[in-house]
């Protein structure tokens, strides 16, 4: 039998063919350019998920939901200064800050801090913050989004081993009070840090008679007027302050983009108006003989609405109130009565006293002052005409704030980079907006330069349970902070 002739090829087992095919695919893919959506700035490679959805989106959204459950009532979300829920929320935020690799502490005004010193602890620190308190019957994104987006971005740097390579310290601050619900004095937390909170504020009391100092003491925080002054940060130790916040308006939704830069914040004044009349029986006091503070208050409120809708019909022009100021008011002025109470508040009694709040906001500070002057004069006139006593108290003032151009430019670039990384496409120009709402950045502007980024919210609805930010927009906000922090590497 003739010897068998060897085949002209070598048989290769199927498993080897599969391995070779897989390696060939890997080589081909590696030779292709990375899509921009997955490209990492600064040449950094951070593994499989370069967009960090598991931290900036999934975990951030879960934390927003968890924080939204921390409330002083079961029926709705309410978390006011130094309430039990506020303290629990602060403790939860500290845990998340520590998870991100930050050193944490709470100061004597109840602010929660998380800080990493980076490579150069002596460098000026970048501060990032927003507030942990809420209004009554609140949504879960106002304030909380800015805190969680910052913490999430820093956690991404930690997971990449880059946190210690920051070229300056970075500190996240969850401010204890921005809304001013409990004590009718906004920015308790940030104003203390900025050094603009009057020491007399410690003795302001809430409706139950508890003072700011007393509320802190109930939570084992002892603060004196001297301690309050010492809370102020040294301006030479701070590089700047940035804040991410929901827009609380409809502009970003209208233009179809999740992020927008803030160029300035409207000034605001809060008034408390007390009207005192003659208390009496609802059925026995003749209409012509009544000194009814409720009727007077109603007339005053209707006048306020007319004044703020058509300021040009009421204001006189002089060196203080110019044509440009009035024109600015016509486009930005808003006035609101948000709270009203009566005493003794019974259906069959003419009240003896009515108290209501007035919130006045405008971009132009001189114009806002002119409105308050005109409003006060007319309100006193109404009270005189109706033979009731009227007292108008200014409870809060904050001038308009212009955001720092240089810091804003960097934040705008970070927002652009974030949107491009997430979409893989050129997102176009990042919108620039004005803020009609007050923010902690207003107080912090007395300490350092500030910049703000707005995040789209559904329908522009805020201060309501209907307040909503999509999961993808939460992701975009965290990615924007991350992109900004990457410029510090």
Automatic annotation (TrEMBL):
Superkingdom of origin organism: Eukaryota
Main location: endoplasmic reticulum
Catalytic activity: allantoate + H2O + 2 H(+) = (S)-2-ureidoglycine + NH4(+) + CO2
GO molecular function: allantoate deiminase activity; metal ion binding
Alphabetized InterPro entries for the sequence: Amidase_Cbmase, ArgE/DapE_CS, Bact_exopeptidase_dim_dom, Peptidase_M20, Peptidase_M20_dimer
Cofactor list: Mn(2+)
One Pfam family it belongs to: M20_dimer
Cellular localization per UniProt: Endoplasmic reticulum
CDD domains for this protein: M20_bAS
Any one Gene Ontology BP term: allantoin catabolic process
GO CC, alphabetical: endoplasmic reticulum
Top EC class for this record: hydrolase
Subunit description: Homodimer.
Family according to the record: Belongs to the peptidase M20A family.
Protein name: allantoate deiminase
